[in-house]
Amino acid sequence: MLRVGAALALVLALPTGGARAGAAVRVADLVWDALADCESGGDWQANTGNGFYGGLQIRPSTWEESDGLRFADRPDHAGRREQTTVGEEIVRRQGWGAWPSCARELGLT
Fold it and tell me: Which of 36, 45, 57, 94 could form a disulfide with 52 if both were Cys (CB 3.0 to 4.6 A apart)?
């Protein structure tokens, strides 16, 4: 598994200590790919029946709250770019704690 702790320098506009409410967040593709590898084996259309969907394993309620419905009804029905766009909104709202195990494993928290 790719360790991206050093890639935190690639997380642009992310305030020290995590995202603040309202702060814009841009995350490098390398970080999203590593997170998806950890969460779903890199399968951006993952639907394993566990209640989480897509490459980033997002719950439908979180998808909806983070404006994902503008792209698709569920994360696994959206493309990679749409999922990462919603992922940036999730990081802005919740920080990397939205993916507790993988964020810790990747050195994001």
Answer: 57
